[in-house]
Amino acid sequence: MSHLDPPQPLVGGRIVRPYTMTGGRTITESPLIALEALVASTPEGMRQRRRFRWEAAEIISRSRRETAVVELAALLAVPVGVVRVLADDLRAEGAVTITDPPSVLVTEPGGEVYTDLLHKVLDGIKSL
Amino acid sequence: MESNHSDRSALTPVKIVVAGGFGVGKTTFVGAISEIEPLRSEAIITEASAGVDELFGDGTKTMTTVAMDFGRISLKHDLVLYLFGTPGQDRFHFMWNELARGAIGAVVLVDTRRVEASFAAIDFFEKRGTPFVVAMNTFHGRKLHSIEDVRHALQVGSGTPIVYCDARVRVDVQRVLVTLVEHALDLASTGVAVQ
Asked: Are B91 and B50 in contact (CB under 8 A)?
């Protein structure tokens, strides 16, 4: 039989098939959202959050403060892929925005934009 | 009203990968400097492909769960730095691609008693062209090898920084991260491709 049949125990001991949480969706249609991409709920999302399922509503609530995809997955105790699918859907509905990491957007790592970013990161770490 | 919506999207996320053999101290390293207790999240992956987080396979591939530990550090300039520990087991190496994508660079932690456990990580970042530094984790202050011995054993070029650190000590971890970003800057300004 298929390995998909038994319920999959997830972190935190919840027994739910990921498939159920995403309404049968498998992977996101847009390019894979980075693990560290920041999700931020919109005022509209906050107003509408009760009409979403628990996981999606939680993503909206917890993203009042910008929170990474991977962090949401840990906090909700669901696999990263579930957050990717739900966050992508919520973005399509205008309930959240997603900030991609600049290092993915910058196509020329040797370029000035990238070295500016690295200088800021360096300064930030030194200032800790 | 949600007052914090006014500065929505003000933050920029960046990432550094912490790699090395199983049990070398990656999560300790992350935890020493993270502003949150290191969190663990899981990805469901298909072992037969490099695809990460497909919720469904096609029924012919083995689905497995990979755990990764990570921490967060808020930096000035509205940056938020995520530190990711790679899954330790060798069979999860393909997960490293996902972690390395878009990373500023990597710290390869080395246990002075088991240098060979970090060979795979070094191979991976060298091939991928990801800037990395080697950090010798000296628990209890032991320095069993000189830097030059380690460089020879690991076969890393003189351009790759090798430093000592105690992964439990915040200033040590901070110094390693500074060394890494400086190294990434050197490579970036000399036009060596990252990504």
From this structure: no
Residue ranges of E strands in chain A = 38-41, 67-68, 96-99
Test the A interface: residue of B7, B12, B61, B70 with most A CBs within 10 Å:
B12
Q: Give the Cβ contact number of residue B37 at 10 Å.
A: 8
User: Which token pair is A2?
Assistant: 């298929």
Place of tokens 């993503």: A59
- pLDDT tens readout for residues B70-113: 999 999 999 999 999 988 666 666 678 888 988 999 999 998 88
B40 vs A: CB within 8 A: yes
User: What does the domain layout of chain B look like in residue ranges?
Assistant: 12-40+71-189
Q: And the tokens for B34?
A: 């993270």
Backbone angles phi, psi at B65, to 5 degrees: -110, 130
Q: Does domain B12-40+71-189 have CATH number 3.30.1330.90?
A: no
Q: What is the ipTM of this complex?
A: 0.86
pLDDT tens digit string along A44-84?
999 999 999 999 999 999 999 999 999 999 999 999 999 99
